[in-house]
Design goal:
By secondary structure, this protein is an alpha+beta fold. The chain is about 30% helix and about 25% strand. The protein is built from five helices and seven strands; from the N terminus they run E-E-H-E-E-E-H-H-H-H-E-E. The protein has helices spanning about 40-65, 115-120, 125-135, 140-150, 160-175; strands spanning about 1-10, 20-30, 80-90, 90-100, 110-115, 205-215, 225-230. The strands form three sheets. The protein has a three-stranded antiparallel sheet, with helices on both faces. Helix 3 (about 125-135) packs across helix 5 (about 160-175) and helix 4 (about 140-150) packs across helix 5 (about 160-175). The longest helix is centred in the N-terminal third of the chain and has 27 residues, at about 40-65.
Length: about 230
């Protein structure tokens, strides 16, 4: 019998020292093909556990940094804590988001604020949004979801409606970054177009095109030719 323990060691330069956490433990007996290496379930559990501990340490460090005023160093008073949910590729994590009073050294519009909530405006990680948009553009929302469920720890915690809304939001954001659409490519007023000089003939408009491969070709270029559909 073989036992494998996976530990995470976090080294911090803020005086806390090393933090050691065990995130997974596996057992292996007599070698069989299906037990060589990690199974899909074990790999997803390992990634989920590693992600959770990394996120927890990052959030703890950020919260400590925000506990004092960044301008004068005065310690901020604590009003309360609420939980926010953040979705990542490797699982959904619940984060403690403290609410703090603003320091009086500078005027503020509100008395309190939540540093973590203001930082994580989007509650889904950019990498998860990227994969959702990428695969939803290739296959249906439902098939994208089946892929996520198969290979990602987060897969069981999202649905097709979530993938759809995130994909549409990404498309709208990309469209907003484009310039104004050019409705016409001929400058000037439309009523003056008839006075423009007639272009040289013949006029050819490409409609579609493609490549035809010979069933006997031996290479990429042998027996291959291009077919274009155009109208003059």
């Amino acid at each position: 019998m073989m036992k494998i323990r996976v530990q995470e060691i976090v080294e911090s330069d803020n005086g806390i020292g090393e933090i050691v956490q065990e995130i997974a433990q596996f057992e292996r007996g007599q070698l069989r093909p299906e037990q060589l290496g990690l199974t899909m379930v074990e790999a997803k559990g390992l990634l989920e556990g590693l992600q959770r501990t990394v996120v927890e340490q990052q959030i703890a460090g950020y919260s400590r940094a925000q506990s004092a005023c960044l301008l004068c160093g005065e310690r901020r008073l604590h009003k309360g804590t609420h939980a926010i949910v953040y979705r990542t590729l490797f699982g959904k994590v619940a984060l403690n988001s403290p609410r703090l009073f603003h320091c009086q050294c500078q005027p503020q519009r509100t008395r309190t604020f939540s540093p973590l909530a203001e930082l994580l405006v989007e509650r889904t990680s950019p990498e998860l949004l990227y994969l959702e948009a990428k695969y939803a553009s290739l296959v249906s929302y439902g098939l994208s979801l089946k892929l996520f469920e198969e290979v990602l720890p987060i897969g069981a915690e999202i649905n097709a409606s979530t993938v759809r809304s995130h994909t549409l939001a990404a498309a709208e954001r990309m469209e907003s970054e484009l310039g104004d659409e050019q409705a016409f490519f001929i400058e000037g007023c439309e009523r003056d177009w008839e006075e423009l000089p007639r272009p040289d003939m013949p006029l050819t408009v490409g409609i579609d095109g493609g490549y035809v491969n010979s069933c006997e070709q031996k290479g990429k270029k042998d027996g291959r030719f291009e077919v274009s559909s155009a109208r003059a």
